[in-house]
Amino acid sequence: MLPIGLMQTWASVQHGMWYARSAEFMTQNIIHIFVWLRVIGDTIFSVGALALGWFILGLKTGWSLTDQPLPYADDNLQKT
To answer: Which residue ranges traverse the bilayer (predicted)?
Structure first.
């Protein structure tokens, strides 16, 4: 949450650390907007992490592997 951290740093320099960590500072509208904007990135990250986990689970259990070679794999073997 880089934007909020930068805002807190600036508020800490200007008014003191007590203000940057206070409820008055943390309940500003811009802080709430940045918190809700983070949901978009968190959702994308979560979907990617779940997809990676699903892929690794498939490799570990073997259900994502096939015994038959891929069609383009035969072409590459014959050219060499």
So the answer is: 35-57
